[in-house]
Input
Amino acid sequence: MDKAIIVRNLRKVYEGGVVAVDDVSFEVERGEIFGFLGPNGAGKTTTINILTTLIPPTSGEAYVGGYKVGDQDDKIRKAIGLVPQELTADDELTGWENIYLQGSLYGLSRSEIRREGEELLEMVGLEEAADRLVRTYSGGMRRRLELVMGLIHKPDILFLDEPTLGLDVQTRAQLWNHIRRVRSEYDMTIFMTTHYMDEADKLCDRIAIIDHGRIKAIGTPEELKRMVEGDLVIIRTVNGSPLEVSLDGIPGLKDYTIDGSEIRVRVEEGEKATPAIIESLVSKGYRIRSVELVRPSLEQVFLTLTGRSIREEEALDTISYRVMMRRRRG
Ligand SMILES: Nc1ncnc2c1ncn2[C@@H]1O[C@H](COP(=O)(O)OP(=O)(O)OP(=O)(O)O)[C@@H](O)[C@H]1O
Ligand SMILES: [Mg+2]
Output
């Protein structure tokens, strides 16, 4: 089986009747970074927990690394790594001690753990801190240590549940780089969840937007953004209102408006249409002052698909995460 993950009609109903995952189907290619994007309670962690064999589905089927969830769980556990949403590293141990503990759970020898651990710690820039107690780590350092722990047995498929939850913008961007390197250097498939639009947009090859347990759309970030309204090309002229322009034959033209010296043209793909729009303007004697290409954001996509914004929930989540971290340190 050449797909890294296959999920068909997956459903999870918790005791008490909460439908957390509702008829979800998707496939993840090998070597892909595939993202589940959705707000609090969308069913992201539940899906990860099923795929990593931590909880059974109510119905439907799933294959991970070619193995069937429920039938070949031991094989799946060896083939995957998991960095859970609730961090697992022990505060009262050092980074290295946590790594040894994790490696020994997979039956690795001390020397194997040492060798792999050194390489991974260097990759995420944590060599210096590895002998310190985890309780002295920053949020970003903890996340990097968890990444090393999830990778110590060289899994084929890595599951990351909200890998940058509660981190500041710069630390998040650094982690994205580490995740990209993990994928390219270890030729790994990565399944991750997030409720950060920018994270899904910049890091994932493909995204499934999930809300209330259902997948609303799947595609590359570009494809998803194209679903809403297409690109907007805004051109300003130097010499007056471009009323004479003819936009017949512009590829992917949807509509346009003219406001003073500005023409706003909505098209399917900005790159394809922009040269033709400029040509039409120039052929009618208009000179160009500026050209701007505005792409729809994932935020707009989410709003269109679900009728809600993800933002307020994002803020709440960050607060609850901080409270949780404080308790852990408490
Ligand atoms: N053990 C459980 N028992 C009952 N309901 C649960 C359980 N775990 C999760 N749920 C419910 O299932 C739904 C999906 O939860 P899940 O944790 O999968 O969402 P999520 O997308 O990971 O959310 P978050 O962004 O907050 O991590 C929610 O309504 C949640 O309250
Ligand atoms: Mg979750």
